[in-house]
Design a protein that fits this description.
Blueprint lengths: L3 H8 L18 E6 L5 H9 L7 E5 L7 H13 L5 E5 L12 E5 L8 E5 L4 H7 L6 H11 L3 H5 L5 H12 L3 H12 L4 E2 L1 H8 L7 H13 L3 E4 L9 E5 L4 H5 L5 H14 L13 E3 L4 E5 L5 H10 L1 H7 L3 E6 L4 E5 L2 E7 H6 L2
Parallel strand pairs: 1-4, 1-5, 2-3, 3-4, 10-11, 11-13
Antiparallel strand pairs: 6-8, 7-8, 9-10, 12-13
Length: about 350
């Protein structure tokens, strides 16, 4: 009877009916997939399992209410001896028991584990979104949908419903703590803006009961879960940080403020972040990657001559940072010029996001 749970799990056949390929690939015999809630970790794993015979697989989700973790821990090793299992998947692994010996193990877990290759999965980037949207071929139209729908697979695939309602429902599942949800909502109002936690605390304390220490802890938790990102000013770590959300469209689902420029900058930030860059901002450069001597300005609608004038005014600043290349990301405008020894490319978001 103790092994009945594992028998039932072994009998379940897992498959994705409508899977869209992601850039992240499972290549290691010991893989740990971390990342943002609702980013598609389970779908990625189930798709990978399609490469195996069903009798070679044991898939366990420790958050499944039918599963008793203690029973699994006690019986897993012996159960594996009775079946031809080559690949073991444990979702929401809590590291409270030793893993058995098996040919291949895939885990989802918040913490890194020695001997496992950690893969971080985020919601879709623009290139992945294109593969999700099979209905449209015009790249500018696809961009408009992306800008309004956001990057969560669950929301995109349920786009027949209200996008804002879908996002709100998803967020309430992801952030179940009421105070934490209110904090995230307040932060969303400051999307792509410079903030201080003390400033946020003063705004929140009149509406919810919270201490400074509690706020800082909850913000740190949201950062660790990659729900938000606080980007430092280059060379000035004590200065106000620039805030970005894990999905640029979330602000529209949580507030009535429609600030496209802020949403657009968040969109650009996420493309850079998902490529593993260490990103900063400066007084005159929206996003700055020192290791690449590379800067990005988010200027969706300004014509080329106005962009040139703006850049000429910050020539000394650009030179001081040692920037060799600046991309000015736009919504349609394009061109190229030199600012002394710095190459400046004016490029539409859809071309910029799809370049290597």
């Amino acid at each position: 009877m103790l092994m009945e749970i594992l028998e039932n799990l072994y009998d379940i056949k897992h498959k994705n009916n409508h899977y869209h390929e992601r850039k992240l690939l499972i290549n290691s015999k010991r893989s740990l997939i971390s990342g943002v809630k609702k980013s598609g970790k389970t779908s990625l794993i189930i798709d990978y399992l399609s490469n195996f015979s069903q009798d070679e697989i044991l898939y366990i989700d420790l958050k499944d209410t039918r599963v008793d973790t203690k029973v699994v821990a006690r019986n897993l090793k012996n159960f594996l001896k009775t079946k031809p299992i080559k690949i073991l998947v444990i979702e929401n692994f809590d590291n409270t028991f030793n893993l058995p010996k098996v040919e291949e193990i895939i885990l989802t877990c918040r913490d890194s584990i020695e001997g496992f290759e950690t893969l971080t999965l985020y919601p879709l980037d623009f290139e992945e979104f294109i593969s999700f949207d099979a209905r449209h071929s015009n790249i500018e139209h696809i961009f408009q949908i992306y800008a309004n729908t956001g990057s969560y697979p669950q929301v995109i695939l349920n786009s027949s419903n209200s996008v804002h309602w879908s996002m709100q429902e998803m967020l309430h599942v992801m952030i179940s703590d009421t105070t934490e949800f209110e904090i995230f909502k307040k932060f969303s109002e400051a999307q792509s803006s410079k903030i201080s936690l003390f400033q946020i605390y003063n705004q929140l304390k009149s509406t919810i009961k919270i201490s400074k220490d509690s706020l800082y802890k909850k913000v740190k938790k949201l950062e660790n879960e990659k729900m938000l990102f606080l980007v430092e000013k280059y060379g000035s770590p004590k200065s106000a940080k620039k805030l970005f959300l894990i999905d640029f469209a979330l602000k529209n689902a949580l507030t009535f403020k429609k600030e496209f420029l802020k949403r657009f900058e968040n969109m650009v930030f996420l493309e850079l972040m998902k490529k593993g860059n260490s990103i900063y901002y400066s007084d005159n450069i929206d996003l700055y990657i020192p290791k690449k001597n590379y800067g990005v300005l988010c200027i969706p609608f300004l014509p080329q001559e106005m962009i040139k004038l703006r850049l000429q005014k910050i020539l000394l600043h650009v030179k001081g940072l040692g920037i060799k290349k600046i991309d000015i990301v736009t919504v349609g405008n394009e061109g190229e010029f030199w600012l002394k020894s710095t190459k400046c490319s004016i490029i539409p978001f859809w071309d910029w996001a799809l370049q290597d």
